[in-house]
Sequence to fold (255 residues):
Amino acid sequence: MKEPNDRTAGSAESKPFLDHLEDLRGVLIRSAMAVAIGTAIALPLVPRIFAILKRPLARVVRDPDAFLQSIEVTGAFSVTVRIGLWSGILISAPFLVYFIGGFIFPGLTEGERRAVLRSSGFAIALFVVGVLLGYFVTLPVALRMMFGLHEWIGVRPAPQATSYVAFSIQLLLAFGVAFQMPVVLAMLGRLGVISAAQLRERRRYVIVILLMASMVLTPPDILTQLVMAGPLVILYEGCIWLVDWFERRASYRQE
Fold:
């Protein structure tokens, strides 16, 4: 009798395609409900969250409350919805990961599941580090650069609250997401999909890609882009070392 392989043993029985679509529909519905509940929890906290977002601005201007304006009648509503929605997504993030993991895990082998679970804590930590770096370092620097450019061309800056919220949230999320790159590389190396030698060979191309990604994800000033690209390059070098360690440990076990 033929023994089941690792993937067959670690996976659920094959389902028809329509059943997979039904499972996906359930994941999307539960995820939407989780985001809605998270947003409902976050909405009463919008004034406090907005105050936190304005703290980096206080390092650039004297009175952030007087500096930010709301010209449109619906300006306050737009700010509330934007902050509430993104905060709701962050609050519901653990449940979203749980729902998505429940959909993906049956198709993974036991080794792949362990690799994903071990990487999850690392991913959360790097996301937090990226957001904190953006909040305490990059956002004040980017604001100084943008307002300095206004002064250089002789224009008085009078940003709307909606514009500031969109700018700050986009920058913080960009840093958090960009810092997930090492997690993906480390997990692929752990699974044997990529090797340390391949990462070394493609180092120059990856650095160029990271610089281009920083140009897209951050405001259009060189200093802000370097603040994002620099740590990413360092993390990439760390991934090479980590994947090399995985390979040496695997070869030691086979001996």
Observations:
- Residues 109-255 form one domain.
